[in-house]
């Protein structure tokens, strides 16, 4: 962390202002990807509430068990119709062996992201989130993440948030520690918006 902060003064300002960096982790298997789907396009608080209800459903944390759940159970958990389709697609891919998460964990970052993103409902963002928080990869930067763009714009005093393409280009200078840079930017944005460790 110190090497990244030493090389990039703007990132070095984050921890003194926001406090120690919380180290968030997720399950590296099926539950971790399931949670990534729950978190798509909604706030962290809403995602946590949905995840809490979904993970409490009997069998939901295994592909076979999840496939036994009906729409009513998913609605009770708070899943939208598209997310119901996505969690089922993930469960079917894992149950059939089309997505072998043990094998994915051994792949290089790009190949692992491509394998996960090939499943309906799991694009590059969800795949990158899984690699970052589930597999603890150190050089992954989620493309198109609105909070990362907002955090960087706030940190650097930019009038306009960088586009996803521009953000990914900026992140190149943080390699091979782009995951850490992302964690720092999320931490900064939570602090700046008063959301704490949400």
TrEMBL record:
> Which keywords, in A-to-Z order, does the entry hold?
DNA damage, DNA repair
Gene Ontology BP terms = base-excision repair, AP site formation; DNA alkylation repair
> Taking every annotated instance into account, which residue ranges of this chain make up the domain HhH-GPD?
38-190
Q: Write down the EC number.
A: 3.2.2.21
Tell me the protein's name.
Answer: DNA-3-methyladenine glycosylase II
Record's catalysed reaction(s): Hydrolysis of alkylated DNA, releasing 3-methyladenine, 3-methylguanine, 7-methylguanine and 7-methyladenine
Q: Cellular component terms, GO, for this chain's entry? A: cytoplasm; protein-DNA complex
Domain of life, per lineage: Bacteria
Query: Which Gene3D superfamilies does the UniProt entry name for this protein?
Result: 1.10.1670.40, Hypothetical protein, domain 2
Name the CDD domains on file: ENDO3c
Report whether Magnesium shows up as a keyword of the record: no
EC supergroup of this enzyme: hydrolase
Which Gene Ontology terms cover its molecular function? alkylated DNA binding; DNA-3-methyladenine glycosylase activity; DNA-7-methylguanine glycosylase activity
The species is Plastoroseomonas arctica
């Amino acid at each position: 962390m110190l090497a990244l902060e030493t090389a990039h003064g703007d990132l070095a300002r984050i921890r003194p202002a926001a406090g120690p960096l919380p180290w968030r982790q997720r399950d590296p298997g099926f539950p971790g990807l399931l949670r990534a789907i729950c978190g798509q396009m909604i706030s962290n608080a809403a995602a946590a509430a949905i995840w809490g209800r979904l993970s409490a459903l009997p069998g939901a944390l295994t592909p076979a068990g999840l496939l036994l759940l009906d729409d009513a159970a998913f609605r009770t958990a708070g899943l939208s119709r598209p997310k119901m389709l996505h969690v089922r697609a993930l469960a079917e891919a894992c149950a059939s062996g089309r997505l072998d998460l043990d094998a994915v964990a051994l792949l290089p970052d790009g190949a692992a992201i491509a394998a996960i993103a090939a499943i309906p409902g799991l694009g590059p963002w969800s795949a990158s989130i899984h690699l970052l928080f589930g597999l603890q990869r150190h050089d992954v930067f989620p493309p198109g993440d609105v909070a990362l763009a907002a955090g960087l714009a706030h940190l650097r005093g930019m009038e306009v948030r960088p586009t996803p393409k521009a953000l990914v280009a900026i992140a190149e200078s943080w390699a091979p520690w782009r995951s850490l840079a992302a964690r720092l930017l999320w931490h900064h944005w939570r602090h700046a918006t008063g959301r704490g460790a949400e």
